[in-house]
Amino acid sequence: MSRIENQFTVQFWGVRGSIPSPGPHTVRYGGNTPCVEMQVGGRRLIFDGGTGLHVLGQSLLRQMPIEAHIFFTHSHWDHMQGFPFFVPGFVKGNNFDIYGAIAPDGSTIEQRLNDQMLHPNFPVPLQIMQANLDFHDVHPGQAIQIDDITVETASLNHPGEAVGYRVNWCGGAAVYITDTEHFPNKLDENVLWLSRNADILIYDSTYTDEEYYCSTSPKIGWGHSTWQEAVKVAKAANVKTLVIYHHDPAHDDDFLDCVGKQAVAKFPEAFMAREGLILSIPVSVSLSESFPISKFSP
Ligand SMILES: [Zn+2]
Ligand SMILES: [Zn+2]
Asked: How far apart (Å, rounded) are the C-alpha atoms in residues 219 and 270?
């Protein structure tokens, strides 16, 4: 069994919400919008196609041909703007299964990816992409089976709707929950269900509680949550490792350092998502060694 076939890893390529935010004050955490790659027993799963997908695509050019499953939470710009710049999608011989829920207006993920590449917004239509693209509708609440990987799904609380995903493989579980807003007096049942006993929970922590409830400019109803709510979910769901994710574009590196210190004080196994962060999940593949969650930069 090769090293890659018994590993379950999570790598962050874009961690910023809403709009890319490059600049001298965001270099340590990164300015690209959402994209997370999971390598699951030799299979590649990608979550969201924000501008981080462009960077991931450049790294994949050294590994052609590529097969991957790409899951979209929803089609707000920050989650799909990298797709037209995903170079492996234009290369014949690559193979991508693409998943997304049907939007409230009835459009499929294929239609929405197609629409963002039409004139006058983009010069090259989706049909020019030469990789084999197979599109799949996600029905939130229903699981998706990819060989021995089970991907569970649930609806999130977000304007225009979004889907949360839980990846289960060989006793390990990684959960991807963005974009979502918490409820006032109780934890979201869908979020708790997806997060149950997870090894890794990646959670929409766009705001702090202070920003969310700010009397002069509250963020209530904007469709996002806080790192304090992330900690509540992680504790209630018995999560092992929490990742604070979908950073507000206005939060610079120093601000995020401060959030990280506060989060760790409340939940010791909390990490701030940053570009390049890789987390490993221990799995019980036969003959493989069990190893603790570790973090390192490439
Ligand atoms: Zn977003
Ligand atoms: Zn959104």
From this structure: 24
